[in-house]
Every structure is written in structure tokens, then in C-alpha cells.
Amino acid sequence: MDKIKIIIRKEWAEVFKNRMVFFSIIFMPLMMTAIPLIILYATGDSSAGDLSSQMPEQFSRYCPQNLDGTECFQFYMVTQFMFMFMLIPLMIPVNIAAYSIVGEKTTRSLEPLLATPITTSELLIAKNLAATIPAVLATWIGFAIFAIGAGIITTSRSLMLALMDPLWLIAIFIVGPLLAILSVNFSIMVSSRVNDPRVAEQLSAVVIIPLLVLFFGQISGFIFLSRQLILVIAAVLLVIDVAIIYMAVRLFQRETILTRWK
Amino acid sequence: MIHTDNLTKQFQSTLAVDRLTLDIPEGEVFGFLGPNGAGKTTTVRMLTSLIAPTSGTATINGLQVGRDDTAIRRMVGILTETPGMYDNLSAEFNLEIYAHLYEVSDPKGQVDKYLRLLGLWDRRYDEAGTFSKGMKQKLAIARALLHEPRILFLDEPTAGLDPEAARLVRDFIAELRKEGRTIFLCTHNLDEADRLCDRIGVFKSRLLVVDSPARLRSQVFGRKVVFHLKQSDEKLAQNISTLPFVHDAKAIENKLLVTLDDPETHNPDIIRALVGAGADVQFVGELRHSLEDVYLRLMQETK
Predict the structure, then answer these.
(1) For B94, which residue in chain A has the nearest alpha carbon?
(2) What is the pLDDT of residues B235-259, one digit of tens each?
(3) B93 to chain A: which residues are within 8 Å by CB?
(4) In this predicted structure, what is the pLDDT of residue B153?
(5) Which of A113, A148, B26, B184 lies deepest, with the highest CB count within 10 Å?
(6) Residue B26: CB atoms within 10 Å
(7) A241 or A106: which leads in pLDDT
């Protein structure tokens, strides 16, 4: 446990000393929290009239019965941003985890590190936690700010209740961490196979593509993020996470990583 | 302490280490010499359980490479070819990380001890990236020693250092030797190996020779004694070469160069023979070949 803790401390010390990385970690949750709040605020003005005509027709049937046209539009807009919130646990770890192994290779610190009695599991758990914890915390803190902000901005109690639907809570508190684990392990897997940090980061970013497909599916009206769909996504992610953790451990071959690196 | 038996490492079509058989007793400083790409680093990596042998066995203080890897890593210290420090972190934190990874019981105490011992105390809060190459190397040595290993693997400890820094590192290795630690030293610096090592192994994928520096010299070149005479000639050289223990004798200006196995025993006989032949002996001294000569000769022979 001591070894895991010290590696996490080391990873965070390195990440937070790099202002660009630190900025990218802070910036995204801020944006993802601020934009839905701004939308709620801007569309809450009654002088704007009924905005429900501006959302896809398919969405109307998912809109809670007790919401009026504008509230329904607000609910629609903010629901879109649920996907954006899901981007936080996917994107933040890429910045940290993609660099985690390949960075050790480029600074030549991997060999002395692997020469210590740390086991592969301890090393990967530490690298996982070091990238997952900030991502999950940023998502949760961002959501908490959003919830508080929405409570202040929204005068409609029924809209507030719709936004605080268990769907959101499942998405933020279950799907978020599962996405972070997926992203971290995918990034670590890529990071241990490539020799260039830029390649690691770019390849790791591929992990957001399925989420973008869902996002565009929803804004075009083909997919609606229902409670059932979120639960299915959570179950699928759980299976994928187990598989990807297994693969990341299997692919982390100390000897190959050391001897292939020039 | 370190024992290998036919230790072999093959990377696809490249045979990096070929049937290395070696015994290094406790407290010995063993110099491992060889050209670039000879397989020295691969050998160190196998002996520190970083990579697995293709065949053969290696044991470190009774622990077997490939079976007791974590225990071996806990027991040995390694100075890798490049220091590989975390440049954005302070010298102190760099060492603190490794003190925890090596399960040191008093991490803070050990870190402080080695920062002071290696003259890095005043710079302990500075980022390692701001250090000179010599200071980084000292920091890497401190890192290798934090858990007080009895066996140390030092891969090119003075490579790329200026003479002053190299000397500091060499002096420190000499101190470690006095403490009775077993040291496996890979180096290109033959003078350094000559001064520090009890035995030397010359390696080029396979072990070419292994012996003490003095015996390697006599093995490769024989022992040569120079007799400085008032006057010397070929006839005198011929007379001396008839002595049964003399391998060769040559007259060069007013010197007589004699090759023999045991100068300590036979020098008095030669001096008596020279005086008997009417020569005036002024000085006697042994002609010392450098380890570099030995090394280059061996490398030439393997070509």
C-alpha cells in the first residue's frame, strides 16, 4: 500500500507541476459545468417565448408530462450536456495516463523503477488510481456545482426534479467512474506499447469516439438517453472494464517494455 | 554471492549473452568490461531480475533469477546506465519515492543520510532537472544505496562525467568497497577498472577471460623485466635467453628486456648472470602493460 501511495503522490506531483496539464484538467470540468448553467439561465427568460419547437420532435415524447414547452426545451438542452459531463472522466485521464508509462520511458526512469521490488499489479493500480481519482473527483465536483447552480437559476421545481432524475445520478456516480477506468486502462495499454508521448495521447483519445457517436445520435434524435439505456451502458462498461484491466496487465510485459525502448 | 551457470539471452536472431558462467564471492569488486553492444547491460538486467534468461541459471545470494525476482530486486541496488531521475521533482522527493519503493524502515533518515554523504544536502529541495550530470549521477548512486544493498550493480557509473565528478564517484565506489559490499561494475574506463576491481571479466557476448588485473597482464603479455645496464648488446641478450626460466630476452639500447613467469624468484639469478658476464646493472624494474593494452589485445584476438 505504501508503494501505491508513493507512486500516486509522485504522479500527482509531476502532473500538477506541469501547468498545461493542470490547466487542461481544470478547464474541461469548468466548461462542462458552466455551459449548461448558462443555457439554463439564458433560456429561463420568459420573454423568449415557447422554445419547444426548436428541439427534435422525437424528444417531445420523452419530456416529462408536467413540464411546459420552455421547461421541456431546457430539459432537452441540459440532457445533451450529460454526454458532455461523461466526457470529463474520459478525457482527463488521457492527459495523465497516456503519459504514465511512455513518460517514464522518455525520461529513462522506467528501468530504475522496475528494478525496485514493486510488482506489476502495484504499479498498475497506482498508475490507475493516480489518473482515475482526479477524473472522478472533477466529474463529481463539476456535477455538484451544476446541481447547486441549477437550483439557484431554475425557478421551476418540476424542471429541477426532472434534472435531478436518478438517470443523472447513475450516469455521474456509476457510469462516470466506469468510463474513467476504461479511459485510464486504455491509455496505460497504449502508453506501454508506444515510444512517443504524443502518439500515446492521440491514440488514447480514440476512447471518446463511442461517446461522441452516442452524443450525435442523441442530438439528431436517433438515440434518447433513457434510464434503461444508461443502465445498459453501465453494464456493458463494467464488462469492458474488466476485460481492459485484464488486457492492460497482460500487455504490461516488463521485459518487452524495457528492451524495445531505445 | 553472484553465481551464473551457462546464462544465455537471445533476442530473436541476436545472441546477446552466450553461456556466461561466473562466480563472484561476497565483498568482491568485479569489473565487467566489453565493447558497446557486448551484452553487459543485458547481463546486468538479467542479474537484477529485470529480464529473464533464455536459458541457464543465475542466483544472487542463493535466490534464483526468474523465480525469486521480487526478493532479488529487494536485495540488490542498481545504478542504471542513465540516471533516469524525475526531473520536475526535488532531489529529496526523488529519493523519498525510492526509499518507499525499497521498503526502507526509516525513509526520511536514509534519504537525509545519503543526501549528506554525497554532498547534495544543500540542494535537496532543488528539482533534479537543474542538477549537473555529475550531481544527477550522485543522486542516482544515493538512490541505489537507500536500502543498504549488499550487492550493487553499477552500469557505467562515470560515463560522461568530467574528471572531477568522475573522481568523486570513483572515490565513493572505493568507500563502498571498504564496507565489504559486492560490486558488479560495468565500465569502459579501464583505468578505473584497474584501480577498483579485484577481478575483471572481459566480455563480448561470451566471457573471454576472467582474472585479477595483474594476472590478466601476465596471461596476455607475460611478465617483462627491464634491466638498465651501463652497456648492453645482443650477445648479452642471447646469454640470458639460454637461462631455463627465461622466455625471451632482447637488448634495446642500453636496456635488456626479459620475459619470464616469476620475476620475484628469478630476478636475482639474472642479475648474477649479468654481473658474471661483466655487465653493470644500474636499475631493475617491471614493464607494466596497461589494462587497456590487455583489453585491446583480447578484442583483437576475438576478431
Answers:
(1) A10
(2) 888 888 888 988 888 888 888 889 8
(3) 10, 13
(4) 95
(5) B184
(6) 12
(7) A241
Torsion over CA: A56, A61, A63, A68 (sign): positive
Q: Chain B: nearest CA to A3, how far in angstroms?
A: 5
Tell me the chain B residues in contact with residue A116 when contact means C-beta distances shorter than 8 Å: 73, 98, 101-102
CA closest to B66 among chain A residues: A255
Spatial distance between the Cα atoms of B157 and A72, rounded to a whole number of angstroms? 70
Q: Could you give the CA distance from residue A4 to residue A262 in angstroms, rounded to a whole number? A: 27
- Within 8 A by CB and 6+ apart from B141, the residues are B79, B118, B157, B169, B172
Percent of chain B whose pLDDT exceeds 90: 42
Query: What's at B270, amino acid-wise?
Result: I
The torsion angles phi and psi of B286, rounded to 5 degrees, stand at: -90, 140
Q: What is the mean pLDDT of residues B166-185?
A: 88
Instruction: Assign 3-state DSSP to chain B and report helix, strand, coil percentages, each to 5.
Output: 40, 30, 30
Q: Are B135 and B123 in contact, with CB atoms under 8 Å apart? A: yes
Q: Is A14 touching B (CB cutoff 8 A)?
A: yes
Cell numbers that stand for A198 in this block: 504524443
Q: Is the CB of A117 less than 8 angstroms away from the CB of B84?
A: no
Kindly indicate the confidence band of residue B89, based on its pLDDT and cuts at 50, 70 and 90: very high
* Burial class of residue B105 (count of CB atoms within 10 Å of its CB; 0-12, 13-18, 19+): exposed
| Beta strand segments in A102-220, E | none
Reported as a pLDDT band with limits 50, 70 and 90, residue B217 is confident
Task: State the pTM of this model.
Answer: 0.80
Contact B45 A258 (CB under 8 A): yes
Q: Can you spell out the DSSP letters for B183-217? A: EEEE-S-HHHHHHH-SEEEEEESEEEEEE-HHHHH
Q: Where on the phi/psi map is residue B159: left (φ > 0), alpha (ψ -120 to 50), or beta?
A: beta
Strand positions, DSSP E, chain B: 2-11, 14-24, 29-33, 55-60, 63-64, 76-79, 151-155, 182-186, 199-204, 206-211, 223-229, 246-252, 255-260, 281-287
**pLDDT score recorded for residue B90:** 95
User: How confident is the model over A71-91, as a mean pLDDT?
Assistant: 77
Q: Which of A200-209, B41-50, B258-267 has the lowest mean pLDDT?
A: A200-209
Confidence class for position A216, pLDDT limits 50, 70, 90:
confident
Q: Which domains does chain B have, with CATH numbers?
A: 2-211 (3.40.50.300), 222-291 (3.30.70.100)
Under 8 Å CB pairs connecting chains A and B tally to 78
CA neighbor of B258 nearest in space, from B268, B266, B247: B247
Given a cut of 70, is residue A53 above it in pLDDT? no
* A124 touching chain B per CB within 8 A: no
* CA–CA min distance A161, chain B (Å): 47
pLDDT score, position A26? 82
Angle between helices A120-153 and A2-17 (to 10 degrees): 60
Asked if the model's pLDDT at residue B83 lies above 80, the reply is: yes
Which residues from B are below 8 Å from A when comparing CB atoms? Answer: 11, 45, 48, 50-52, 70-71, 73-74, 78, 80, 82-89, 93, 96-98, 100-103, 140, 143
Confidence (pLDDT) at A198: 77
Cβ within 8 Å of residue B73, ≥6 positions away: A115, A116, A117, B48, B49
